[in-house]
Amino acid sequence: MARDRLRPFGDRVQLLQGDFSALGAIASENSWGPFAGILFDLGLSSFQLDDPTRGFSFSRDGPLDMRMDRRGAGKTAAELLAKLPEREIARILHEYGEERFARRIAARIVAERRDRPITSTAHLARLVAATIPRRAWPRRIHVATRTFQGLRLAVNNELQSLTRGLQDAVPLLAPAGRLCVISFHSLEDRIAKETIRGCARSEPPRLRVLTKRPIVPTGGEIEANPRARSAKLRAAERP
Residue of 12, 53, 84, 180 with fewest CB within 10 Å of its CB? Predict the structure, then answer.
């Protein structure tokens, strides 16, 4: 779809699929750079979210996959839940999903998988809903949202890839080149903020902070695209 939309720009556009963590290698292999700007858009594609076969959402039942790139040999969310120790599942849900009932959910997952594997999004969502007391359900999001977020981050090594990608991006910028990061939850935003600040405080400074506070969507933008409500933009410039 991107190729079709950008076709009028001809050879000004080059499309290449790869992980954030491979940014440096991809740039080197293609003799790309230095760049006037690098944008990290950390949002999950709505086309993937709305496709039940991808396993990212509990709104419609589908296989518990969650891999961003299904070409590789990475484990699916179902495979992780089938094999990981209870303590590791709890850690993932707590650290990546920021789920305060992580231990209770992990124990329920391990008990459940003894009888039957957890292979569908609906199965996992029902399990989480049955585990968390109704009085503790969040008001603004689905009760299983944090569990799904934690698993997705773990399946795709997203935070590690982002950290590596940002580190690779800074030296690829031309003087006055800009680095922009659009994040959608606190863990991503924290990595972007700490990376940018660290580079700004180095001697000599490797970046100059352009956004002391993240830029957030306007009411009109959220109305036009409700999934943008949690977006935060941070920007920096190479001296």
Answer: 12
